[in-house]
């Protein structure tokens, strides 16, 4: 779901039914007190692992993240600081940038709300990844000229504001491609060639000598794209493939294996020291139906232990390679992303803890 205008004055809350607690619209959002077991679990996880959710403005998270019932607009406006106090939540996905770029000042306010070690995943404007072609059933409304794979537009409207506003708290700038049809669906090589030219035009990110620092990442919804040409395009520029749990894609284990085979086929033996996973959607659902079935996102409705085990395995493998790891979970994965992340953290901890 899209976020509200983060720093606009929140609208007045509608009158709640008598049987429900009134949601507060105050600008002061309080974090709930975490259980001691949750604090202990978070302390056992490696610092290189950052877990987080897609956005933070969900009233249903009362008792999990927030201390009281707050309106969605109030959480979008001022809930980030409370979100960042949760022991497990050390990153977050900024989704509203997919619909329109933000200015550096807005990113700076986000950065000021979180600790220094917190990292943001920022989705690039959809105009960059959505071709204006007649075969697309759903167009993303983007006034002005077409911006598909326009590196100059990305540099000016996406990369520069993110780096200026978030600074060292920049984790990932993600280019999420929707399912692409002709001509790209018929030619993985064509897509990889156009992607490589786009990546070649992006400004360099301030990556340290050890490879740590913000990264560009690419997420696709065409399973046929993951191969040698795609791996070569990413590897040439140190760009990360976003492993995504989505019904249109192979499982994360297969994605990782296919990508590694692609790297080996083109002679790229060095991979970026970051593994990125986005667990987006339950395999039996579509976004619209999942939203209706899972709202208000306060409980696990459809547990997905298969995906959880696969993500945990990829996380532990990446930690074993001394990589940074960022995992973003959507409410539509199982019903409540904070609860999903707690189970995922337990699964990762169990794999990392030697048997006694």
Output the CATH topology. Answer: TIM Barrel
* Mass-distribution shape: globular
The mean pLDDT is 89
Largest sheet: 8 strands, parallel, barrel
Strand content: 5-15%
Number of domains: 1
Give helix and strand order, one letter per element, not per position: HEHHEHEHEHEHEHEHHEH
Q: Catalogue the unreliable spans.
A: 1-21, 134-143
The CATH homologous superfamily is called: Protein of unknown function UPF0759
How many alpha or pi helices? 11
Rounded to the nearest angstrom, the radius of gyration is: 20 Å
* Number of E-state strands: 8
Identify the notable features of this structure and list them briefly.
TIM Barrel; alpha/beta; single chain; disordered N terminus; eight-stranded parallel barrel
List the helices and strands and how they pair.
Elements: H1 36-44, E1 49-54, H2 72-78, H3 80-83, E2 89-94, H4 104-112, E3 119-123, H5 151-166, E4 170-176, H6 188-200, E5 215-219, H7 228-237, E6 240-245, H8 252-265, E7 274-279, H9 287-294, H10 305-320, E8 324-329, H11 337-352
Parallel strand pairs: 1-2, 1-8, 2-3, 3-4, 4-5, 5-6, 6-7, 7-8
Helix pairs in contact: 1-11, 4-5, 6-7, 7-8, 10-11
Description:
This protein is an alpha/beta fold and 356 residues long. The chain has one domain (36-352): TIM Barrel (Alpha-Beta Barrel). The protein is 34% helix and 13% strand. It contains 11 helices and 8 strands. The chain has helices spanning 36-44, 72-78, 80-83, 104-112, 151-166, 188-200, 228-237, 252-265, 287-294, 305-320, 337-352; strands at 49-54, 89-94, 119-123, 170-176, 215-219, 240-245, 274-279, 324-329. Strands 1-2-3-4-5-6-7-8 form an 8-stranded parallel beta barrel, surrounded by 4 helices. α7 links the parallel β5 (215-219) and β6 (240-245). α1 (36-44) crosses α11 and α6 (188-200) runs parallel beside α7 (228-237). It is globular. Mean pLDDT is 89; it is low at 1-21 and 134-143.
């Amino acid at each position: 779901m899209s976020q509200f205008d983060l720093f606009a004055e929140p609208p007045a809350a509608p009158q709640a039914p008598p049987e429900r607690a009134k949601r507060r619209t105050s600008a002061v959002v309080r974090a709930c007190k975490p259980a001691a077991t949750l604090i202990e679990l978070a302390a056992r996880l490696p610092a290189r692992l950052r877990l987080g959710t897609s956005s933070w403005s969900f009233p249903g998270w009362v008792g999990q993240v927030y201390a009281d019932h707050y309106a969605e607009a109030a959480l979008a406006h001022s809930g980030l600081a409370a979100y960042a106090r949760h022991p497990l939540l050390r990153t977050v996905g900024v989704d509203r940038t997919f619909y329109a770029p933000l200015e550096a000042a807005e990113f700076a306010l986000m950065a000021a709300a979180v600790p220094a070690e917190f990292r943001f995943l920022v989705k690039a404007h959809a105009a960059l990844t959505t071709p204006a072609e007649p075969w697309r059933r759903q167009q993303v409304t983007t006034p002005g000229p077409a911006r598909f794979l326009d590196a100059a537009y990305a540099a000016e409207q996406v990369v520069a504001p993110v780096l200026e506003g978030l600074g060292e708290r920049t984790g990932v700038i993600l280019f999420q491609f929707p399912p692409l049809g002709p001509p790209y669906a018929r030619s993985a090589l064509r897509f990889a060639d156009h992607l490589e030219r786009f990546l070649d035009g992006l400004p360099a990110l301030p990556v340290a000598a050890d490879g740590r620092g913000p990264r560009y990442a690419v997420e696709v919804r065409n399973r046929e794209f993951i191969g040698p040409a795609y791996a070569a395009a990413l590897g040439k520029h140190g760009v990360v493939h976003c492993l995504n749990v989505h019904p249109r894609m192979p499982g994360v284990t297969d994605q990782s294996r296919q990508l590694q085979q692609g790297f080996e086929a083109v002679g790229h033996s060095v991979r970026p020291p970051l593994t990125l996973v986005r667990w987006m959607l339950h395999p039996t659902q579509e976004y619209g139906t999942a939203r209706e079935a899972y709202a208000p996102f306060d409980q696990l409705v459809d547990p997905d232990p298969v995906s959880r085990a696969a993500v945990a395995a990829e996380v532990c493998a990446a930690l074993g390679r001394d990589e940074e790891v960022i995992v973003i979970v959507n409410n539509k994965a199982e019903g409540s992303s904070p609860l999903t992340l707690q189970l995922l953290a337990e699964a990762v901890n169990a794999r990392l803890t030697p048997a006694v």
